[in-house]
Amino acid sequence: MELNLAAKTAVITGASRGIGLATARTLIAEGVRVVGAARTITAELRDSGAVPVAADLSTADGVATLTQCAFAELGGIDLLVNNVGIGDAMEPVGFLDADDERWNDIFDLNLLSTVRVSRAALPSLIERRGAIVNVSSINSRLPAAAPAPYSAAKAALTALGKSLAEEFGPRGVRVNTVSPGAVRTPAWEDPEGFGAKVAAAFGAEHAAFLKQIPEAFGMTTGRITEPEEVASLIAFLLSDVAGNITGADYVIDGGTLKVV
Questions:
Q1: What CA–CA distance (Å, rounded) separates 99 from 156?
Q2: 52: burial class by Cβ within 10 Å (0-12, 13-18, 19+)?
Q3: Strand 51-54 vs strand 79-82: parallel, antiparallel, or unpaired?
Q4: Residue 91 and residue 239: Cα distance in Å, rounded?
Q5: How far apart are CA 9 and CA 45, in angstroms?
Q6: The predicted structure's pLDDT at residue 38
Q7: Which CATH number characterizes residue 32's domain?
Q8: pLDDT of residue 85
């Protein structure tokens, strides 16, 4: 399938690893010029061919840094992937253990970063009749499966995508959401990441816990999703091949979600 993305420009947030890095590589392979933002620039992002921008997108200043660099490097923005999420505040704690600071940190990163980046990019996206993909989570539909602040932030992000699609669709901008389940990313595999913390909370050894995820989550395919699979879905939704798809929420979770 020819996606016809060559010569387009894109901004990807949370691009240093996982889904964001895979998306940067996928779009670059399609001929897209990419600016990738992350709080910490990894060697993988630097070597991907994207223009790396170090920015903390949980802050207004970080968003300003990203957008200024993006316009300077690209001249304008055709495509936006709001992928940044999880963050250091993501801990496997109950509702009563999540104070206001934790709620604010998680909402700033998982929701308000998208609000701010989208607001800054939309004038260019409108001019170029571009497209946005927001990366949410199946936790927006399975709120009991993650800490309450994260699930609430992702549910709000999914709702935001539909609002933006409705408001800006008549002006030529398509907005869609991708909601992954468990994906083979550092969030799950890093010894200091969220997955390791969940394993420790249950008294499980990290490697054994990871092997049990497909069965524990009821994945029909029997395996977790690869970042490249999510990236391929994102690339499709950004392309003109998906030209009449907007306001949609695509789940990619190996069959974890089993509701109509």
A1: 19
A2: buried
A3: unpaired
A4: 35
A5: 17
A6: 96
A7: 3.40.50.720
A8: 87
Q: Give the pLDDT score at 89.
A: 58
* Any domain includes 116: yes
10-residue stretch averages of pLDDT, the chain, 260 residues long = 94 97 98 97 97 95 96 97 81 89 94 97 98 96 84 97 98 98 91 85 88 93 97 98 98 93
Q: CA 173, 179, 183: angle at the middle one, nearest 5?
A: 130
Please give the positions annotated as active site: 150
d(CA 131, CA 114): 14
Strands (E), 28-155: 33-38, 51-54, 79-82, 131-135
Q: Which domain holds residue 42?
A: 9-182+226-252
Report how far residue 153's alpha carbon sits from residue 224's, in angstroms, rounded to the nearest whole number. Answer: 23
pLDDT at position 88: 60
Residue 27 CB neighbour total at 10 angstroms: 29
H or E stretch covering 201: helix 194-201
- Tell me, yes or no, whether 66 lies in a domain: yes
Q: Do 149 and 102 meet the contact criterion of CB atoms below 8 Å apart?
A: yes
For residue 190, tell me if it sits in a domain.
no
With respect to residue 199, please indicate whether it lies within any of the assigned structural domains. no
Distance CA 116, CA 45 (A): 23
